[in-house]
Amino acid sequence: MTTGMLELSGITKSYGSRRVLDDVSFTVAPGRLTGFVGGNGAGKTTTMRIILGLLSADGGRVDLDGAPLNTADRRRFGYMPEERGLYPKMKVLEQIVYLARLHGFGKAEATERATALLTELGLGERLNDTIESLSLGNQQRAQIAASLVHDPEVLILDEPFSGLDPLAVDVVAGVLQASAAKGASILFSSHQLDVVERLCDDLVILAGGTIRAAGSRDGLRAEHARDRYELVSAGDAGWLRTEPGVTVVDFEGGYALFDADSPQTAQRVLQTAVERGDVASFAPKHPSLAQIFKEVIQ
């Protein structure tokens, strides 16, 4: 697989007087999963459609490896739209083979690719069933196979985990991680922030058509980390409530989550906890993606 860096620079889009995208800029790197999050109407689907050439931007540019994206480049893309689009009366394997052949594969290789991918996605026993006979979750898996069967260089997925049970989420996540490991640049949107947090390498948060935060998952967590700590001890941690420079956020028995006004205060708390009894654990508490999301869109 050839790989490419996808880069959006200053993308704007308006419908009449309403600006839906305003100076949207971010990158999707090869070999990495980029989570794209934002509330309904934030502009995620519009951005994805502009990347794919389904909509034209009013301004800005989309580049692949530093050159303007063209139609030939987009043939090497995989796309899963939020509005699913498989033929309902077509058999599952027949559908995916057909799509592989549209990308230039011969019948034998297309069949081999489609069978292997559908089996990996847990549809090995449903190859000869029609799309419409599948559950919504299994239709979702088939749609993901459709976007992946030609081994795309760039993969754009709009809500790929919608409607999947936890086991199916794990299966699909594994397939996407394998694609990234081969060098694909993957951009996926999702409202399931816990899934995004677990899966993404990089993160883009969009609200009101503007980028509110973008960067690596771990970098953003460190950037938005406060001096918050978690203490688990054998004794009652209620004494923390009267410690200078400490604000207790959560407390139950020997467990306490607290903010410290400085690292020195945190160290003093640890020393006091050790003196008072057994300390099972003491560590900085990084914010969750949900907490970062709430913070940056306010």
Polypeptide structure, described:
The structure is a single chain. With 298 residues, this protein is an alpha/beta fold. It has ten helices and 14 strands. A hairpin with a 2-residue loop joins strand 9 (202-207) and strand 10. Helix 3 (92-102) crosses helix 4. The mean pLDDT is 92.
Q: Distance between the terminal alpha carbons, to the nearest Å? A: 41 Å
Q: In total, how many beta strands?
A: 14
The averaged pLDDT comes out at 92
Radius of gyration over all CA atoms, rounded: 23 Å
Q: DSSP strand (E) fraction?
A: 25-35%
Report the principal-axis shape. globular
Biggest sheet overview: 6 strands, mixed
Strands of the biggest beta sheet: in what spatial order?
Answer: 6-7-8-3-9-10
Number of helices: 10
Order of helices and strands: EEEHEEHEHHHEHEHEEHEEEHEH
Helix-strand category = alpha/beta
Low-confidence stretches: none
Helicity range of the residues? Answer: 25-40%
Oligomer: single chain
Outline the secondary-structure elements.
Layout: E1 6-15, E2 18-28, E3 33-37, H1 44-51, E4 59-64, E5 67-68, H2 71-74, E6 77-80, H3 92-102, H4 107-120, H5 136-148, E7 154-158, H6 166-181, E8 185-189, H7 193-199, E9 202-207, E10 210-216, H8 217-223, E11 228-233, E12 246-252, E13 255-260, H9 263-276, E14 279-284, H10 289-297
Parallel strand pairs: 3-8, 3-9, 6-7, 7-8
Antiparallel strand pairs: 1-2, 1-4, 4-5, 9-10, 11-13, 11-14, 12-13
Helix pairs in contact: 3-4
